[in-house]
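Dear V.,

Thank you for sending over the compound details. I've combined the ligand you provided, guanosine-5'-triphosphate, with the protein sequence from our construct and run the structure prediction for the complex. I'm sharing the raw inputs here so there's no ambiguity about protonation or stereochemistry in the SMILES, which I know was a concern on your side last time.
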Amino acid sequence: MEYQLPRLTKMWTHLERQAGGRVKGMGEKQIEVDKRILRTQIGVLKKELESVRKHRKQYRNRRLSVPVPVVSLVGYTNAGKSTLLNRLTGADVLAEDRLFATLDPTTRRVAVNNGKEFLLTDTVGFIQKLPTMLVAAFRATLEEISESSLLVHVVDISHPLAQQQIDAVDKVLEELDVASIPKLVVWNKVDKTDDPRRVKLEAERKGVVCVSAIDGYGLEQFCDAVQAKLRDSMVLVEAFIPYDKSELLNTIHQSGIVEGTEYRENGTLIRAVVPLPLARFLAPMRQQVAAAL
Ligand SMILES: Nc1nc2c(ncn2[C@@H]2O[C@H](COP(=O)(O)OP(=O)(O)OP(=O)(O)O)[C@@H](O)[C@H]2O)c(=O)[nH]1
Ligand SMILES: [Mg+2]
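Below is the predicted structure of the protein with guanosine-5'-triphosphate bound, written out as C-alpha cells.
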C-alpha cells in the first residue's frame, strides 16, 4: 500500500473528464479520497502489526517462567517451515503454496519420544532482498529469532535455485546479527526431488538432516538432531530447589539432562546440564547450593 500511495495519480482523470469534473464528493477529488482510504488502511495495519509485536513479547516473557528452549524455523519463503511445524506438532498453522503465507510467528510445543520437549517457532520466510518497507511487517518474527536457542534453517532442496536461496537466507541472518545462535540445516521436500536416494546420501555426507514435511520422512532424526544441537549449548549447573518450587524439577527434567539429585530437609539438590535460559533463571537457586551443603 505504501508502494501504491504515490502512484495513484492520474488513475481517475478519465472519469473526471467524463463527469465534467463533478465526481468529487465533499469537495475532494477522487484521488484524494483514494489516498485517504489507503492511508487509513495503512494505519490500521500498522496498529495490528504493533499489537502482534506486543503480543509476542508478552508470550516471550511468560515463557521465561518455564524456560524450555525455543527453536526457530527460518528459511526462504515457501521452503515448508509451516508444514514442518504442523507435521511435528499436529498444529494448524497456515501453510500455503504462496509467498509470505506466514506473517505472525507461531510457537508450538514439540514433545519428543524420550520425554524431552522444546518449543518450535514458525517465522516468516526470507527472500532475496527484504524491501525496507516490509521490515516493519517482519519485526515480530525477527525479534522472535534473535531470542531463540537454536535456528533451524529449512531448505527446499527440490528447488532449482536452492543454493541461491540458502545464500540469501544466510545473508539475512548475518544482517540480523544472530551469528552467535547455533544453527542446524535441514533439507526439506526430499520427496519432490528427482532422485531422493542420491539426495539423502549427499545429505548424510554433509551432515545435513533430510526430511519430507509432507510424507513424514526423517522427522525422528530431525528431533534427535535438534536435541543434540541444543545439548551442545547447554551448561552444567548445581542448584538447590526448595520444596515450594518443586515444579522446577519437572522443567529441569524436561529440558535438561539430570546427572544427580539429593533430597534434603527443605529442598532438592540437583546437578544437571540445562539450556542457557534455564541456567539463568536458576541463578538464585544456584547460589543456595553452598548454604544447603
Ligand atoms: N512435496 C513436498 N511439498 C512440501 C513439503 N513441505 C512443504 N511443502 C509444500 O510447500 C508449500 C509451502 O509450504 P509452507 O509450509 O507454507 O512454506 P513456508 O516456508 O511456511 O512459507 P512462508 O510462510 O511463506 O515462509 C506448500 O504447498 C506445502 O504443501 C514437502 O516435504 N514435500
Ligand atoms: Mg509459513
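A first observation: The chain has a mean pLDDT of 83.

Warm regards,
I. M.
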